[in-house]
Amino acid sequence: MSWTQLADLAAAVCILLGALLALIAAIGVVRLPDLLTRMHAATKPQVLGTVLVMTGVALRLRDPGVVGMLALIVLLQMATSVVSSHMVGRASFRAGQVRHDLLVVDELSDGPSHEEPRGAP
Fold it and tell me: Which UniProt keyword terms apply here (predicted)?
């Protein structure tokens, strides 16, 4: 087996795993109960799925210009998904669309939300 066939096989595996993670993210967005868990499902597996798909495409095409563009896509996807999910979560909390009974720690409310001190002893 030559290195090109091995790279093509690795590309196929990466693309299939990335597509599977994107499918899991889509199912999570539809099935999960509240906004914060839906945001988690939309960002975590979707970003990893995008990274895997772009890695598979880079392994398959093997062109330095394309690999550079794919790396830029991955970096921008990682940066924007974090910022956008933070902004959506904060806006939904301020609008009262978050279920407070599901929160473990509530750092955005005015009053004390936990009994135990946080951080290192």
Answer: Membrane, Transmembrane, Transmembrane helix
